[in-house]
Every structure is written in structure tokens, then in C-alpha cells.
Design a protein that fits this description.
Blueprint (H helix, E strand, L loop, with lengths): L39 E2 L3 E5 L2 H11 L20 H12 L5 E7 L5 E11 L4 E9 L7 H16 L4 E7 L3 H9 L3 E12 L2 E11 L3 H12 L14 H10 L3
Length: about 250
């Protein structure tokens, strides 16, 4: 077989059809369920389905902190000048089935710190994407931010999804670095994929597959464990190191 021109290793092939190699069978595949809206609980945050009456005021306050304005650069909506406008936008998102929005709530203070969603939910093929991330300055670079990503990822794979996706503007280097830290595999760039705010967007694609999840789950659980942090809150082991080691074991 000739070498693949694509930036990934060719998968194992199953029986040929009409002289062409095809992928391995996926026996007894019945699809995955559409994600039910439910609370996901962790050490540092609860991931709650977005409810406007419950979350809007707290989220608005968190999004007014200095530095929060930078969060709107790579999305197609916002910033919002008035609370009423932000609340209306949240209400529109909460009413949709896809994307399905969630809020990170601090377990100690009960304050809403940021949002993320499932989107492009494809139960038939078992693929689901995480996106619409908007973490307030209080949540950025926190254990709660990582834990929210872990809880949503773990929930998707527990439901039977085969593929968990992360996509971002190829110029959004913080998002690309976050994807790699979280254990996603870079798959390539879709050039001129969209026009956002009147500007070209090339989209970088990342993914985690169900077969990769057990090793990555162990990496997350090691990092999130309270004993991974000293009395000053400093990590003993870096998540980027743990996920890189997990991926090395998958080769």
C-alpha cells in the first residue's frame, strides 16, 4: 500500500469491496443517544445545563471582569453592551437543542464562571463537538476550567460517542494550545472554511477517539485529584505532560 498523503496514520483495513480497501466493521453499532441535559459534578465545579433565570446574572457579572472582553474575538456574536441583550442571547441558546449549552458553577461560591456547549451532535455516527467556550477571567487557567472539559468529555464517551471534536480559528493559538494540553490530536486545517465578522477563517480540527479515552481519562483523573496540588495550589504534575504520556502509550 502506498504511503498516505494525509497527516495521520492510515487505519487498519477490512475486507475489500470491488477491489478497494474499506475500514474495519463496527459490529452492532446502533448509534449513540442524544445527550440528556443533566448536571455533571466534580471536585471544583458543577456543570449545569444553562438556565437563564438561574445563571444569567452571575454569568453577566463574571463577564464584566477586566480582560473578559478578549473572549469575544473568535466567536460570531457579542460582546453585549447591556445585560438585557446578553440575557436574550442566553435565552436563545438555552432554547436550542443543538448547540446544548452548559454552565460551570463554582462548588464553593455557587457562582457561574463560564459556559461551553456540545454542538454538531451526530448520534447516528457517534460524533460530537465541544465549543462556544467562554470562560470568565476567574475561571481561566483554573482547575474548574479543566474539570469542565473533562466532565463534558467523560459524559460524551459514557453515552457511547466514538469521536469528540474540538475546532478553532487556526489563528487562535491559545485555543490550539488548550486542545493539545487536553489530549486532543491535531488533524489538519480546513482552509477558507468560513467568513466570520467579515474576515476569513481557516479552521483547525482536533479530536479524541473512544479508543484513546481510557488512557486520557486516567491522565485527567491524576491531574484533577486534590493531592496533585500542594498547599499553595501549585500542580505537582502538569496535565500536558500526563496527556502527552498517555498519547505516547497509544502509538
Amino acid at each position: 500500500m502506498t504511503a498516505s498523503p494525509l497527516p495521520y496514520r492510515l487505519p487498519a483495513a477490512g475486507p475489500e469491496l470491488f477491489g478497494h480497501p474499506l475500514g474495519l466493521p463496527v459490529p452492532d453499532w446502533q448509534g449513540a443517544p442524544f445527550p440528556p441535559r443533566r448536571v455533571l459534578s466534580g471536585y471544583y465545579c458543577r456543570v449545569e445545563p444553562l438556565e437563564v433565570e438561574r445563571h444569567a446574572e452571575s454569568l453577566w457579572a463574571a463577564m464584566q471582569l477586566p480582560g473578559a472582553e478578549r473572549n469575544w474575538a473568535y466567536v460570531t456574536y457579542g460582546p453585549f453592551e447591556r445585560f438585557a441583550d446578553y440575557r436574550d442571547w442566553l435565552a436563545g441558546m438555552a432554547a436550542q437543542r443543538d448547540p446544548q449549552f452548559y454552565v460551570a458553577v463554582d462548588v464553593v461560591s455557587g457562582e457561574a464562571l463560564g459556559v461551553a456547549s456540545y454542538l454538531r451532535i451526530d448520534p447516528v455516527n457517534g460524533a460530537i463537538e465541544v465549543g462556544h467556550l467562554n470562560f470568565s477571567p476567574r475561571m481561566q487557567r483554573s482547575r474548574a476550567a479543566t474539570e469542565m472539559m473533562y466532565l463534558m468529555m467523560a459524559n460524551a464517551f459514557a453515552l457511547g460517542y466514538r469521536r469528540y471534536e474540538w475546532k478553532c480559528n487556526a489563528l487562535n493559538q491559545p485555543s490550539s494550545r488548550a486542545a493539545l494540553r487536553l489530549g486532543f490530536q491535531f488533524e489538519g486545517v480546513f482552509r477558507q472554511a468560513r467568513i466570520d465578522r467579515g474576515r476569513n477563517r481557516d479552521t483547525a480540527w482536533y479530536s479524541i477517539l473512544d479508543g484513546e479515552w481510557p488512557a486520557l481519562r486516567a491522565a485527567f483523573e491524576t491531574w484533577l485529584a486534590p493531592d496533585n496540588f500542594d498547599a499553595a495550589g501549585r500542580q505537582r504534575q502538569a496535565l500536558s505532560t500526563l496527556t502527552a504520556q498517555a498519547r505516547e502509550g497509544l502509538v
